[in-house]
Amino acid sequence: MTVQVFKIPDSFKKDVKFSFCPGCDHGVAVRLVAEVLDELKIREKTILAASIGCSVTLYDFLNVDSIEAPHGRALAEATGVKRARPDKFVFTYQGDGDFASIGLAESLHAALRGENVSAICINNTTYGMTGGQLGPTTLLGQVTTTSPTGRNLEYYGYPIKIAEHVALCDGTAYSARVSLDSVANIRKAKQAIKKAFEVQLQGLGFGFVEILSTCPTNWKMTPSKAHERVRDEMMKTFVPGVYKDVTSDGLTRRMR
Amino acid sequence: MSRIVIDSDKCKACYLCINECPKKLIKIGNKTNSLGNRVVEFDDPEGECLGCAMCAVRCPDLAITEVYKG
Questions:
Q1: For residue range A142-163, what is the model confidence (pLDDT) as tens digits?
Q2: Is B58–A26 a contact, with Cβ atoms under 8 angstroms apart?
Q3: What is the CATH number of the domain that holds B24?
Q4: Where are the domains of chain A?
Q5: One-character DSSP codes across chain B
Q6: Which residues of chain A make contact with B53, given a CB cutoff of 8 A?
Q7: Residues of B in contact with A16 (CB under 8 A)
Q8: Do A223 and B68 lie within an 8 Å CB cutoff?
Q9: What is the pLDDT of residue A250?
Q10: ipTM over 0.90
Q11: How far does the CA of residue A157 sit from the closest CA of chain B (Å)?
């Protein structure tokens, strides 16, 4: 007997076609979100706060109600939506420049207030949509269009580790960092997204997942080389794992 | 028999699926699609496909739309 083991999630619009560059992991992340919305059966009560960046056209792909937030303010909008309509499921989908640079105040204060929303942050160590400028998560030594000799410590300082910062906030219920470099890690990423959504449904507080992703266009690499870079360089600095989980018995455990 | 369905109009020729397949059944074909990309083909004459769906999980553009196992 033949069984169907993979299909396009129902939470996508009909005949969806992504506008991302070839080999970009954004497509995988969006698909994981759609699969989790399907599994939790919450598509009809979901409100998405989309952000500025490569994730800006997310409302074209997901068949959910959505609002578009100004630069970095997705979690401020999500806060308002959730407080006005506490019965709805509210989540944001942001990039690292949006979450951790332009909107760092909004993001961290949403976590500190313990807003009952979920946030997903795609970390690709650069400003992808605007042409690969140096971002808050750019690794030391990484060459970008605005750091042509590589990010040096004296001039630019250190990259921000978002998942750890969010985990330090007392209002956070779940904070994890996952990677999309291999199929095994993609499956782990889906579990983390599901967990971050579930803590909101249980009313426990802020749920957050940082997803290590690739930007083959701006890194000037082939898609498979870009995954090797995630494995060899990014995962050394940004170590994947669960940094806070109030549903486990107070213990921080690493997922690796 | 296990098989996959490829929507070649969505393929952007990143070729990530080729490395993922444990049986190496996905190959770069000779056809180009409306985007001008040389799309991948599923070539499984001996019915070796396991239906593991690793290619579909890896594909960032939903170009592998269905996977059947059996």
A1: 999 999 999 999 999 999 999 9
A2: no
A3: 3.30.70.20
A4: 26-245
A5: --EEEE-TTT-----HHHHH-TT--EEEEEEE-TTS-EEEEE--TT-------HHHHH-TTS-EEEEEE-
A6: 5-6
A7: 62
A8: no
A9: 54
A10: yes
A11: 33
Taking only the tens place, the pLDDT of each residue in B8-47 is 999 999 999 999 999 999 999 999 999 899 999 999 889 8
Chain Cα centroid distance, residue A54: 12
End-to-end CA distance of chain B: 5
CB contact under 8 A, B53 and A5: yes
Token reading at A243: 């940094």
- Put simply, the answer to whether A5 touches B69 (Cβ < 8 Å) is yes
Nearest CB neighbour to B10, from listed A2, A17, A28:
A17
Q: Which residues of B touch A3 (CB under 8 A)?
A: 68-70
Q: Which residue from A154, A150, A152 is spatially nearest to A142, judged by alpha carbons? A: A150
Tokens of A36: 């989790």
Task: Name the token pair of B32.
Answer: 């180009």
| CATH number for the domain formed by residue range(s) A26-245 | 3.40.50.970
DSSP state of A54: G
**Contact status, residue A197 vs residue A207, Cβ threshold 8 Å:** yes
| Cβ distance of A187 and B15 shorter than 8 Å | no
How much is the pTM?
0.94
Taking only the tens place, the pLDDT of each residue in A58-115 is 999 999 999 999 999 999 999 999 999 999 999 999 999 999 999 999 999 999 999 9
Domain ranges, residue B64: 3-68
Distance CA A122, CA B59 (A): 17
